[in-house]
Amino acid sequence: MTSNINKRKHQNEEDKTLKTFTFKLGGIHPEENKFSAGAAIERLAPGKEAYVPVSQHLGVPAKILVSKGDQVKTGQLLAQGEAFISANIHSPVTGKVKKIDQYPDQSGYKKTMVIIDVEEVDVWDDGIDPTDTVIREVPADKSMIIEKIKEMGVVGLGGATFPTHVKLMIPDGKRVETLLINGVECEPYLTADHRVMLERAEEMLIGIKILMKGLDVQRAVIGIEKNKPDAIAHLAGMVERFPGIEVAPLKVKYPQGAEKQLIKAVLNREVPSGKLPLDVGCVVSNAGTALAVYEAVQKNKPLIERVVTVTGKGVKKPCNLMVRIGTPIQALIDHAGGLPEEAGKVVSGGPMMGKALNSLEAPVTKGTSGILIMQQGETPRKEVANCIRCARCTVVCPMGLEPYLLAQQAKLEMWDEAEGDMIMDCIECGSCLFECPSGRPLLDYIRVGKSKVGHIIRTRKN
To answer: Which fold has domain 305-375?
Structure first.
């Protein structure tokens, strides 16, 4: 208790000396547990087999271009995203296609994957520069940037995995003024973006300049929570060489990294219900995505690897790993010291918005930001009791919703009422579930309700 009081006092003192921003409505302060914040990025060697899903993005699965027995190079196109919202998939390794089959992904459901027997030495596909040499000049124009990002299969690495090239294709009548870079990483435990901002800052900043050029904007703001003072100081010094880019320190509050909350914190603009950041003149991209954009445009390198945090209170070696897509999650856990005896649950992502895994053989995908091993004492939910009408869930909801009401409407299948009470505005941050003293499964019901109401809305439009 004393340490928490001292920590809060220290944060308050920082607030007085450093101008910080935040959103005003709702929010919570879960324990941060950033155990891997000081762990430099390590490169994890590929295993004997790679399991590459053809759907690692929001939208339509990519169309497979290879067959069983084909020899593939690292970075070679495996599957092509043909729909407007889709993304290309490339081989993360060199080897032979063992089979194309249905295999469980992180959701536990079987999905189509290209399974590759991995060879020890990488043979890179033609035109790819895998070296660490930094290329600073950006000769590509706007159309070339968008096409290259599309070709290299870049998607948002913050979790949503929305194809990045689509974000850059601004519809007629819309105007973007500001690019926001999400370096918040407000999920407890996760530190992948933190390490990218420290260790790959120059490449990330060049990636931001590329995104600015692709959007034709003159201003970019990197939002970083002030629990990362080293990243704030490091980037604040570096942006002096990158005109138009600035750093915005943010108060520590979850879910600061959600798009609408970040926009409110940095630009003091509110995205209306049912609208997008584009409707208030901005585009939001993740810090890790900016690095991937740099590699795509400057190095002709597809998105075949990403930084993943492996952490937890019982983990022997919390770490940040540069991992090839398709690597079984078991390999990451083995590198971190193995599964602790007291492990109760393994989560893909953070504890607030992550999803529990039912198999450690599921592969890393473009959207895998972290692997969290939770102890048995952390995993049980509270015993569900009657709602006591305390309204805490309403107070902490960053979207201004009434979670207790939406959950009850979903439970009773009152879909019209749930739609009218804006269930689709829920960002599934879990703040209501975290705060509820009665242990009610609010988010579980709301997710079910969102799925059903979303289906009804889509059917109505068609």
So the answer is: Ubiquitin-like (UB roll) (3.10.20)
For residues 187 and 116, is the Cβ–Cβ distance under 8 A? no
pTM: 0.93
Buried b (16+ CB within 10 A) or exposed e, 275-291: eebbebebbbbbbbbbb
pLDDT over 60 at 7, yes or no? no
Residue 216: pLDDT above 60? yes
Residue 371 sits at φ, ψ, to 5 deg, of -125, 115
- Residues 386-441: tens digit of each pLDDT: 999 999 999 999 999 999 999 999 999 999 999 999 999 999 999 999 999 999 99
For residue range 10-41, list pLDDT tens digits in order.
Answer: 444 444 444 567 898 999 999 999 999 999 99
Helix ranges, 183-254 (H): 192-199, 201-215, 229-238
Give the CA distances from residue 313 to residues 33, 171, 294, in Å, rounded to whole numbers and listed in that order.
8, 46, 34
As assigned by CATH, the class of the 49-118 domain is mainly beta
| Tokens encoding 323 | 């991992």
Closest CA to 235 of 192, 201, 196: 201
Matching CATH number, 19-36+137-299, of 3.40.50.300, 2.30.30.280, 1.10.3720.10, 3.40.50.11540: 3.40.50.11540
Q: Which of 240, 431, 285 is nearest to 350 (CA)?
A: 431
Beta strands in 228-357 (DSSP E): 245-250, 282-286, 305-311, 319-324, 343-348, 355-356
Cα R_g (the chain), whole angstroms: 22
How far apart are the C-alpha atoms of 441 and 382, rounded to whole Å?
Answer: 10
Share of the chain above pLDDT 90, in %: 91
Q: Token digits for 127? A: 């035109």
- The residues spanned by each domain of the chain are 19-36+137-299, 49-118, 305-375, 392-461
* Same fold? 19-36+137-299, 305-375: no
| Mean per-residue pLDDT of the chain | 94
Cβ neighbors of 397 (< 8 A, separation 6 or more) are 25, 26, 403, 431, 432
Contact yes or no for 402/421 (Cβ under 8 A): yes
